[in-house]
Amino acid sequence: MTRGLVIGEALIDVVERGGRITGEYVGGSPLNVAVGLARLGHDVDFITHIGDDAHGGRIADYVKSSGAQILSGSFSAARTPTARVRVADGGLADYEFDLDWRLAATPTAAPPAVVHTGSIAAVQEPGCLAVAALVDAYRVSGTVTLDPNVRPALIADRDVARERLERLVARSDVVKASEEDLRWVDPDRTPEQIARAWLALGPSIVAVTTGARGAFAVCAAGRADVAARPVEVVDTVGAGDAFMVGLIDWLWRSGLLGADRRESLRRIGLDALIAALQAAAGLAALTVARAGPDMPDRPARDAAAKPR
């Protein structure tokens, strides 16, 4: 059985609009990826750091209901992390976190075909050190995917965080980042320049989301661009995570995941890359049309993929 492993934070998003709380949602970028992949029918294990409290129980129920599995050892936090999400006009979201990131759980299953991580888990000590070690251990057998999903409010030392991200980029096969991420990484270079520099470090694909303009990606064959799907935006919470899910899902269904497929992934052509980006953009469009980080399931994905 082919399985995926997702490593990273899980939390409760407390959403605020117009100065009042309008809802609480289970969130966290890696959690959204784990849930999204499971809802699309993939077998996924999730390693995180939450508390044995009401919020932690809600997260566990949410992950389990999606079909993913939280690995033992993930319930060791003193309290479950939260994020205050302030949604402005137009749906753009700003985050304020209460989070301590550590990693006590260890995988016990067979080596996964794909390992995903990113966001807070990739840069915040002490958990980021364990994340890097797991990536090193599992990239021997699986494809590594990474979404930096930078949270500047939680980064104490920008230079150290950038160095950690670059080391993970060099160990990854597929990297997805937003324009905002790349501006934070280096405001003096264009997103494409950074994407190409990252590609030279080792990945087979570096994809960049550009909001309402869509996305582009670079690979050995060149650059591919796709437009965003037209949609009425409710909010952008989880949009980037859905894009990452769509990208991994397309590669998974196309038989391009696993260390034994690394060379095939490296040789991906532009037509295939465009198809992957279109699938990812389609999943992101479904998500921004919903409130909160509500990842689409397989019927929604398949319905959206039908010719119009």
From TrEMBL:
Q: Which UniProt keywords apply?
A: ATP-binding, Kinase, Nucleotide-binding, Transferase
Q: What is this protein called?
A: Fructokinase
Family statement: Belongs to the carbohydrate kinase PfkB family.
Give the signal peptide, or none: none
Is Nucleotide-binding found in the keyword set?
A: yes
Select a single GO molecular function from the record's annotations and give it.
kinase activity
Organism, as annotated? Mycobacterium heckeshornense
Give the matching InterPro entries: Carboh/pur_kinase_PfkB_CS, PfkB_Carbo_kinase, PfkB_dom, Ribokinase-like
